[in-house]
Amino acid sequence: MKPKRLLVEFIRSTWYIYLSSVTLHMVASIVYVFFPHVLGEFTDRLQGGQMTGSDIVRYSLLLLIIGAGHAVIGGFGQYLVMYVGRLFEVMTRRRMFVHFTGLSEHFYSRNGVGKLLSYFMNDVTGVRESISMGVNQTAMATMLFVSSIVAMVVSGIPTYLIVASVGPLILIPWIVTKFGPAIRKRSLRVQEALGTMTESAEEQFGGIRVTKKFAVEPIMIGRFGETVDRIRDNQLKLVRMSSLFQALVPFLGSLSLIVALSFGGYLTIEGEITLGNFVALTLYVRMLMNPLQQIGNVINTMQRSRASLERLNELLTKTPDIREIEGATHVDLSTAGIRIRGLTFSYPDEKKEALRNIDLDIRPGMTLGIVGRTGSGKTTLVKLLLRVYDPPAGTIFADDRDIRELTLESLRSQIAYVPQDGFLFSTTIRENIAFSRRSAELGEVETAAKQAQIYGNILEFPDQFETKLGERGVTLSGGQRQRTSLARGLIKDAPVMILDDSVSAVDAVTETDIVRTIREERAGKTTILIAHRISALKHADQIIVLDGGAIVQKGTHEQLLSQPGLYATIHAIQEEGSQHASGH
Amino acid sequence: MPQAINNWQMDQKADLGKAPKPQYRSAFRTLASYSKPHRLTFFLVFICTIIAIAAELFQPYLVKVAIDDNLMVGKNDYGSLLVICAVYLGLSLSGLLFTYLQNNLLQYAGQSIVARIRKQLFEHITKQSMAYFDKTPGGSLITHVSSDTEALNQFFSQVLLSLMRDGLTLVLILVMMFQLDATLASYCLILLPVIAIIAISFRSFMRKTYQMARTRLSRLVAFVAENLSGMNLIQAFHQEKEQEKQFRKRNESYFQANLREIRTNVLFNRSFDILSNLSIALVTWVGGKAVLGESMEFGVLYAFITYIRQFFQPINTITQQWNTLQSATVAVSRIWGIFDVPPEVADKQEPLHLRKEDVKGRIDFDRVSFAYAAGTPVIRELDLHVRPGEMLGIVGTTGAGKSSLISLLCRFYDVQEGDIRIDGMDIRELPQSELHRIVGLVQQEPYLYAGSIVDNVRMFDETIAKETVVRACEFVGADPLIRRMKDGYETKLSERGSGLSAGERQLLSFARIIVFQPRILILDEATANLDSHTEQLIQQALSAVSKGRTTLIIAHRLSTIMQADRIIVMRHGVIEEQGTHEELLSLQGVYEELYRHSQGERNDNADKSNSRAGMIEAG
């Protein structure tokens, strides 16, 4: 029952729209079925010589009314069903977005943005197609089919003639379901080949400097050419299949007509049916071709979207792994110290321990420096503090309360986090800096920008603080991004601030200035500095050195320098650079 | 709709700007020249099309014959009815066959043309000089090669097919109608302009709504994509509610655009339907009176009714092609816009040659001046002479001209004044391919291709043996690391070498240098962005690689170049200071200040304006 939940809920809330739409479609089909019937009657009266001038006008008008009635009623039905399909998209996407905001980094690390986007776009659309098109076309086609048969029987066309004439048409849905998936498979292969070519072009243009520097252009042109040929071959394979299909469907229609012509004609000659019946029969056969093809399409769409629906349901039933417990409380981090006891942590699905037996006290107002090599666990520690991942119970405390018992809000709104990558959104610079407080005055934003040493750069942009960032706007350098991201953290003015190697792409002189401002601004507030350059954190009240997930050294800069160990080594490498290196 | 993500990605990459106005005539003249080798195929397609549509067109006519000659007159001649059926069956079979042939032939010709254009386009772009790549965003080049040519492909597979098939169908229906009854046919002809006006006016309106929906969709996708990648930040700053509000706005606006699109679509299709029914009623009325007045046979009326119904389908299809036709035209003019640009840096007609093995490695810059844009020189009358085998360090502020100097030596650009010589020969006299093998370059961001490690080191040049690659990797110290990988040297690297750390990637690019043995080596910030330990490994590789070569090193970390034979400090396109590390320190100038900062010695009382002057910005 579970996998169908999404759809069931939706249909439950919109069933009346569906019902009206299906009804309208049915009425339209029934109206339409009279079309050949009226023409047949017209033929008979004409042949019988009972026709008068006013009859002709009457019949013409009748035909017009039938046609127009079908178009208008069907049109409303069609609009309703397409409307309800789009409604499904909007509602489902809204739900998905809310769901996405609750999922943790653990989820995102296993699901790339591309994959999630494909859920968001393709799967939702796939389901939409089958619930709007599917339901209605089936209803309409079935109705048209049934009422045509009934109409034929009623007008006195013998059943065996109907069966014989319509027989070949029944093959159409079967052929559609046979060919549909095969064609789709081949067309996917074309898309893939196209994607490969795009990737290849992307790669080659990206590395054009390298290609040119090694003078290997002919080789690269050859490599690209292969991807082009693959598209052509796949495309031709697709055409072989799809053109056969496209030719086959009308051919079956023709077969039906031939049967109607020969058999029906014979019966007309024999006087078993009237000429009017014969005319109506040929028209019915033509009329039935389309709905039968649609039924085939619907079957294919449904099959495709079933997988989509399952994926969506699975995604939406996934519970976030970081959750607030019931009765979670609030703690004021400006007065509460953070205490870490015996913290050992490994990432989900991984055996290796990322952190081992960490004991640490962070007093309110202190500045803590964390140094270590890549992969030593610096960032992991921070992620646990922010509950990006859940620490094991009873390891991290704020004000003697396990942080797992705090509200997420009290944790995240009181910690300002400045990540290394300096991720910014494609909005204006001002909106980026005022990310945590959208209503911040321009003056506050400017102050933060000045503190982060980015103010001068921003003023150089044409629209200054209103400059739009991103693909269609200005692109910032790595250093500028980091400094903007720093301003975003500073404006939050939170009791705790974490800088995760946040100035690594900034030059030495600017770094010096930034470190000084941070010291001034953060005086009396808790600050955690992570860096691989010692110069950025040597003024910290306490520095811990992480190696392989464990704290190997602890102390102030001077204490750590005076003892042999990793800290002194790193310092030596950084201060003396190549002299040390060339000594190897 | 699966297209939506693609479109969005394309939009992301492309610098679309304003689409040029379609230039139909010139665009199709060029296309015609490409079609020439396929003349015969196109002719065959034409023949096939006529045969293929004959079956469908003759069906109403055949029924008419059956009605008028057999059924209506009450002649009990079943034989001739069977003949009619047999003819129809034959036509249907040939229709099946020739529709198939027509599709395949047309696609074959179209695909061959598109493939040829794609290859030529890629080759042409590859031959451009670096200036071109600097000016043109990579994204738009990719758009040209993939989506513009794809628009062209759609022109062949959809527009041309529809023009041929539906156009011919329309014409032939009209011919048949006039054959049957000229008066009634002329009445039907009145419809044609009405249909055309409705179709065209609706189409342009529909295009607008369609584009609106597409723009809003790509905004929605872009927003979601960005929020998904920045989700950790949204959560860390507790901004879930706020972002959701913004999402709702975009989601809702896309929904509105969709509804508008649906309304237009339904309205258009239904008015077309009504028009079609109106014409049938008209034919019944006019024709019925004629039959009554014995001036027309009933079968003719039957045929007319059927033809009128067949008439609307091709018109609908053709007008649907309008969008595709337009985008194809724009694509063609964009593609030919690229073909029209000749490479800026070109080889001499009769180039001189320099054997790589004989190159000593002496470099002379003589009074070289260069500017990317007129009026703002980047290099000013620069003189620099490098001895064979010398190791030269280059430092300087952003915009000092360090990288431009290197680009000139690689001849990514041509100097505007003065000349650059290698072993006394002007580099403009050399073919670019030879120059590029003589001068090797290692960049800050090592670039790796999708492919095995071996292929990456030998740049897919299969004439280079695997043993050579292995030896090179051993030489730079990458061998133990590669052996540890799953498939050793055959390990496939995914895009841009992901899975390897920055340092490991850099080691591979050093191995490339060993394989290709350039006589002059340039390292452009090749050791930046590495953590201290990887840097040590790279330093060792560096000293291995630079042995016996003239080596130029650009660095912003002074530690990399301290032991160079000579260091030059550049500022505003000229050499400001030069000498060894010790000499420069004793000068107490720009270098000395840079050195102090890199040592992390903070002197808070230092003159601020002075420190700004020495500011160097990392990439």
TrEMBL record, chain A:
<feature type="transmembrane region" description="Helical">
    <location>
        <begin position="15"/>
        <end position="39"/>
    </location>
</feature>
<feature type="transmembrane region" description="Helical">
    <location>
        <begin position="160"/>
        <end position="179"/>
    </location>
</feature>
<dbReference type="Pfam" id="PF00005">
    <property type="entry name" value="ABC_tran"/>
</dbReference>
<keyword id="KW-0472">Membrane</keyword>
<keyword id="KW-1133">Transmembrane helix</keyword>
<keyword id="KW-0812">Transmembrane</keyword>
<dbReference type="InterPro" id="IPR027417">
    <property type="entry name" value="P-loop_NTPase"/>
</dbReference>
<dbReference type="GO" id="GO:0005886">
    <property type="term" value="C:plasma membrane"/>
</dbReference>
<dbReference type="GO" id="GO:0015421">
    <property type="term" value="F:ABC-type oligopeptide transporter activity"/>
</dbReference>
<dbReference type="InterPro" id="IPR011527">
    <property type="entry name" value="ABC1_TM_dom"/>
</dbReference>
<feature type="domain" description="ABC transmembrane type-1">
    <location>
        <begin position="26"/>
        <end position="304"/>
    </location>
</feature>
<dbReference type="GO" id="GO:0016887">
    <property type="term" value="F:ATP hydrolysis activity"/>
</dbReference>
<dbReference type="Pfam" id="PF00664">
    <property type="entry name" value="ABC_membrane"/>
</dbReference>
<feature type="transmembrane region" description="Helical">
    <location>
        <begin position="138"/>
        <end position="154"/>
    </location>
</feature>
<dbReference type="GO" id="GO:0005524">
    <property type="term" value="F:ATP binding"/>
</dbReference>
<keyword id="KW-0813">Transport</keyword>
<feature type="domain" description="ABC transporter">
    <location>
        <begin position="338"/>
        <end position="573"/>
    </location>
</feature>
<dbReference type="InterPro" id="IPR039421">
    <property type="entry name" value="Type_1_exporter"/>
</dbReference>
<protein>
    <submittedName>
        <fullName>ABC transporter ATP-binding protein</fullName>
    </submittedName>
</protein>
<dbReference type="InterPro" id="IPR003439">
    <property type="entry name" value="ABC_transporter-like_ATP-bd"/>
</dbReference>
<feature type="transmembrane region" description="Helical">
    <location>
        <begin position="244"/>
        <end position="267"/>
    </location>
</feature>
<keyword id="KW-0547">Nucleotide-binding</keyword>
TrEMBL record, chain B:
<keyword id="KW-0472">Membrane</keyword>
<dbReference type="InterPro" id="IPR027417">
    <property type="entry name" value="P-loop_NTPase"/>
</dbReference>
<dbReference type="InterPro" id="IPR003593">
    <property type="entry name" value="AAA+_ATPase"/>
</dbReference>
<dbReference type="GO" id="GO:0005886">
    <property type="term" value="C:plasma membrane"/>
</dbReference>
<dbReference type="GO" id="GO:0005524">
    <property type="term" value="F:ATP binding"/>
</dbReference>
<feature type="region of interest" description="Disordered">
    <location>
        <begin position="596"/>
        <end position="619"/>
    </location>
</feature>
<keyword id="KW-1003">Cell membrane</keyword>
<dbReference type="InterPro" id="IPR017871">
    <property type="entry name" value="ABC_transporter-like_CS"/>
</dbReference>
<dbReference type="InterPro" id="IPR036640">
    <property type="entry name" value="ABC1_TM_sf"/>
</dbReference>
<dbReference type="Pfam" id="PF00664">
    <property type="entry name" value="ABC_membrane"/>
</dbReference>
<feature type="domain" description="ABC transporter">
    <location>
        <begin position="363"/>
        <end position="597"/>
    </location>
</feature>
<dbReference type="GO" id="GO:0016887">
    <property type="term" value="F:ATP hydrolysis activity"/>
</dbReference>
<dbReference type="InterPro" id="IPR011527">
    <property type="entry name" value="ABC1_TM_dom"/>
</dbReference>
<keyword id="KW-0813">Transport</keyword>
<keyword id="KW-0067">ATP-binding</keyword>
<dbReference type="Pfam" id="PF00005">
    <property type="entry name" value="ABC_tran"/>
</dbReference>
<feature type="domain" description="ABC transmembrane type-1">
    <location>
        <begin position="43"/>
        <end position="327"/>
    </location>
</feature>
<keyword id="KW-1133">Transmembrane helix</keyword>
<protein>
    <submittedName>
        <fullName>ABC transporter ATP-binding protein</fullName>
    </submittedName>
</protein>
<dbReference type="InterPro" id="IPR003439">
    <property type="entry name" value="ABC_transporter-like_ATP-bd"/>
</dbReference>
<feature type="transmembrane region" description="Helical">
    <location>
        <begin position="159"/>
        <end position="178"/>
    </location>
</feature>
<dbReference type="InterPro" id="IPR039421">
    <property type="entry name" value="Type_1_exporter"/>
</dbReference>
